[in-house]
Write a structure and sequence with these properties.
- With about 180 residues, this protein is an alpha+beta fold.
- The protein has a single domain, classed as Jelly Rolls (Sandwich).
- Strand 4 and strand 5 form a beta hairpin.
Length: about 180
């Protein structure tokens, strides 16, 4: 019983201590001006968001003068009534912190936006929702491919994954006895 408890505690500690970066990849992400799509709901991520990164390309000429750097990450309330972070985008959402990408200022097809920025104020991500969209309010439907990275956070492990770690711990402890 003691080894079972130790294996379970170790599995939980390993899972809780893991702090990685979460990357969200997309082949073709389309959004019109100020259109945002939820990519992570509140509670799906854990950790402290310390930075954000983008590695994307404008797949077709941006509509209505949308540029590659208008690809925008929003972090805040699920209904966007409060926005803690806006990364990217020309238009101001009123976020507590706004970060601009350092490149991608063109609407030509093939324009890349590749950047990593640190947050001035790190965010506890556990109760916040993450959105991806077009941060140019007058922009038309625009298509990007690539990825965004949320630095300092991790996906919440599924309950089944924790149970599997516990079973692996049990199997390991039985082997040691034999």
């Amino acid at each position: 019983m003691k080894s079972l408890l130790c294996a379970g505690v170790a599995a939980c500690a390993l899972t809780a201590a893991a702090s990685a970066d979460v990357t969200y990849s997309f082949d073709s992400f389309q959004a019109a001006g100020f259109e945002f799509t939820e990519i992570f709901a509140a509670g799906e991520l854990v950790g402290t968001l310390t930075g954000v990164g983008v590695d994307a390309v404008l797949l077709a000429a941006g509509a209505n003068a949308t540029w590659a750097d208008d690809l925008t990450i929003l972090v805040g309330a699920a209904d966007l009534s409060a926005i803690n972070l806006q990364a990217g985008g020309f238009s101001n959402t009123g976020a507590a912190e706004k970060i601009s990408w350092s490149n991608g200022a063109s609407g030509a097809a093939g324009t890349t936006v590749i950047d990593t920025q640190s947050l001035g104020t790190p965010l506890d991500i556990s109760a916040l929702t993450v959105f991806l969209g077009n941060g140019y309010s007058a922009g038309g439907l625009t298509d990007w491919g690539g990825s965004i990275t949320l630095i300092g956070v991790d996906l919440v492990p599924a309950p089944g994954a924790l149970a599997l770690l516990g079973v692996a711990g049990l199997a390991g402890s039985r082997r040691r006895r034999a």
